[in-house]
Amino acid sequence: MALRLGDTAPNFTAESSLGTLNLYDFLGTSWGILFSHPADFTPVCTTELGKTAKLIQEFAARNTKVLALSVDGVASHQEWIKDINETQNTTVNFPIIADENKEIAYLYDMIHPNASATLTVRSLFIIAPDKTVKLIITYPASTGRNFDEVLRVLDSLQLTADYQVATPADWKQGEDVVVIPAIKTIDIPAKFPKGFTEVKPYLRLTPQPNI
Ligand code: BEZ
Prior knowledge:
The chain has helices spanning about 25, 45-55, 55-60, 75-90, 105, 145-165, 190, and strands spanning about 15, 20, 30-35, 65-70, 95-100, 120-125, 135-140, 165, 175-180, 195-200, 205. It is an alpha+beta fold. It has 2 domains: about 15-160, Glutaredoxin (3-Layer(aba) Sandwich); about 165-205, Antioxidant, Horf6, Chain A, domain2 (Antioxidant, Horf6, Chain A, domain 2, 2-Layer Sandwich), CATH 3.30.1020.10. The structure holds benzoic acid.
């Protein structure tokens, strides 16, 4: 059955461009982003992995480790990484998993047979430190992902985990956040000393608590 939000991310051990890797050991107590791409030496994927490499400090600042996956082998990944580094002017220093027998692709439901019988779609999973799946997004092969959005969701998820707030539509860093419905209005001042605005009894806004 397909993975759903709140499920435990299945563990695996696999070969990667950085050697043999166990997912849980690799992540440790960090947040994780596992994302698949259809194949090595493809144009959109080349730009995605270059972009991810450029953002690696942003992910690190969010205590987040990234790992990519495709159904090609390690030798292919190594050659392709040279191209990515050259064409995207970066250094890929995160692992790309070699899932040649598609075990992980099936485990994470990354192959959508009506899109392609053999290639992974652009699946992306955010995994919390407790190993639960917090986000699943799926793009078609022809559309490169928006990694600013991935960072934005990561910020939102971490705010929810740390402060019991949610984030409204199109929220960006620094903007007001929403107090989750589980918190009674009478309890808000103690939890959110920066103050709050009650737009409706069910819509309470407060300044972003961690800035
Ligand atoms: C790409 O990564 O560029 C790509 C892969 C498969 C189909 C279309 C584009």
